[in-house]
Amino acid sequence: MQIIPFQVANLDGSDRREVISDNLPHGFGLSLLGDFLYWTDWQRRSIDRVHKLTGQQREVIVDQLPNVMGLKAISLAAPITNSKNPCAGENNGGCSHLCLNRPNDYVCACQIGYELIDDNKTCVVPEAFLLFSRKENICRISIENTNNDMIIPVTGVKDASALDFDITDNRIYWTDTKLKAITRAFMNGSEVEKIIEFGLDSPEGMAVDWVAHNIYWADTGSKRIEVARLDGASRRALIWEALEEPRSIVLDPQEGFMYWTDWKRNSRMEKPIMEGRIEKSAMDGSKRTVLIGRLGRANGLTIDFADRRLYWTEFDAPAIESSDLMGHNRVQLVTKNMNRPYGLTQYQDYIYWTDWDTGDIERANKTSGNNRRKIHSKLEYITDILVFHNSRQSGWNQCAINNGGCTHLCLALPSPGSGRNADLSSISSSTASPNHRCACPTHYTLDHDNKTCLPPRSFLLFSQKNTITRLSITNGECPDAVLPISGLKNVRAIEYDPTTRSILWVDGRTQAIRKAPEGGSPRSNHSPVGHHSPSFHHPPASPSVLVSSPSSSFSDTHGGGGAVTTHYHPYDLALDPYSRLLFCRWGEA
Q1: Which residues pair with 453 in a beta bridge?
Q2: CB count, 10 Å around CB of 197?
Q3: Fold match flag (86-124 vs 460-588)
């Protein structure tokens, strides 16, 4: 084992030397008390000490302490008083919250949720602030000054893309294109939780329905727009046809509409280019229409709920544009001195946007594009930006009360007369409330009460190494849905138990049969089946499992004088319990 010595040096790194290097099989904890250096040794099960400068006077203080690791020496003597630490005074350096000493000066800082005002000493709770995602970080930053650039301490972020929040419970939600997951956490970074981690390919867009407590997302890889509850339950595919690369998505729950951008590669051109469009539908995916076509790569959709206008960025022909919510009265707000605008949000009289090339955050008047000002710079790879303020999540619909009476999903619908040719600006919550409809997870159907969901009665299941997918043969439904069962590795065979609505499968690593409810709850294990069991069957209402074993065989001899003997092995099983027939595929040895 390599011996790692204890060393000492001046604070500037000079005069470095060894204090002790002999008989240190596994030094661990290290602390100082007076003239002595104390440490624990995990292998020798001891606490030792030695003179901190000479390495002499070594002795064992305590012996035979199993699993001894951490160590801290404490002295309650008077503290050092000749320090010139400005934070050590009674007034905390003048800071209202945190005072952080540095080699030549000090700075005031705030806890999460607070911001420094212009005096650089006082922390306050801001009325509004900016949230943005970039690569491995979720950050918040002041909307007014450059004093407050803070990384929210969430763990496990690999490549954050879309970002949104739910102001009622103070949570943030984000998509991660590298992990292929949607995750949430509280604003202080606590309780990080993956809510969707199956069946995602490239979730580029995402939006929170703060009224019905649902989450919507657009997946450019699977070419779908889906919805689920905020905890990931009751997942349903809303739109899965005629989508190329759905990207940014925004919601208007009060009026019952959703809007999204879609990119398509035009290969008919001599040099293929990306063409974009903005589409609109009811929040259940119905009443779909193209709002604005013939765009470049449009992104950063955001809605001004007060003035009933839609804003977006143009990535290829750099610009920020706006229209009303019917796609009319389209104007270009900002076109000059732009590189590649990407993220966009709106608050009060201003729009805020990010530039992919420069990393800048700028703002301008939302109506004229004037009063343009750079408020932050060189924040690289910002993928999404939004303003955290309750004005961004106002409004009401019938889903707000008892989930609209629905057992699973409550989806807002437009009010009568708010279709393609209606003037949405004339519709208010006081004169017309949006309708709603109950919806079910993919492949589930509504009962006669139009509120309760019933499980599917006819479907196929298939496995693909690490996933199990349900395939529906019912017209009008999204054909496939990945089941939320975790820990699948090299799935070799699958079975279904209709009495408990559970999935059984052969785990290729352990060669055991495992079982879990189709909703992905905790699993149970059955007996091992061996390395040569490609198929099994679970008879309904039976505790038994039928397993095929290709390692077993039987012989069939046929022919005349030159008899031929063939050895057969059972491979696949299928049982018809109603006809009491067992089907099997046999293979020759």
Answers
A1: 446
A2: 17
A3: no
Tell me the residue ranges of DSSP E strands in 442-501.
Answer: 445-446, 453-454, 460-463, 468-471, 480-482, 491-497
> Which residues are CB-neighbours of 495 under 8 A, at least 6 positions away?
503, 504, 505, 536, 537, 538, 545
Among residues 577, 575, 514, 511, the alpha carbon closest in space to that of 546 is found at 575
Class of the CATH domain delimited by 129-393: mainly beta
Q: What pLDDT is recorded for position 521?
A: 64
Instruction: Please list the residues that pair with 567 across neighbouring strands.
Output: 555
Enter the DSSP assignment of 426. Answer: G
- Residue 426 backbone phi and psi in degrees, to 5: -90, -5
Q: List, edge to edge, every strand of the sheet that includes 554-558.
A: 554-558, 564-576, 581-588
The CATH superfamily of 460-588 is: TolB, C-terminal domain (2.120.10.30)
Tell me what pLDDT residue 561 has. Answer: 46
From 287, 275, 217, 204, select the one nearest 250 (Cα to Cα): 217
Indicate the CATH number for domain 86-124: 2.10.25.10
Q: CA dist 440 to 205, 298, 410, Å? A: 22, 31, 9
pLDDT at residue 159, rounded to an integer: 97
Q: How far apart are CA 166 and CA 213, in angstroms?
A: 8
Q: Report pLDDT for 570.
A: 59
Q: CA-to-CA distance for 139 and 133, rounded, in angstroms?
A: 6
pLDDT along the chain (589 residues), means of 10: 75 73 82 89 87 89 86 75 75 92 84 89 94 94 81 94 96 98 96 96 98 98 98 97 96 97 78 85 97 93 97 94 97 94 97 95 96 91 95 93 97 76 39 75 95 93 92 85 90 86 86 85 59 57 55 46 50 70 67
DSSP string, 523-584: -EEEEE--TT---EE--TT-S--EE--TT--EEEEESSTT-EEEEEEEEEEEEETTTTEEEE
Assigned token pair, 91: 């007034």
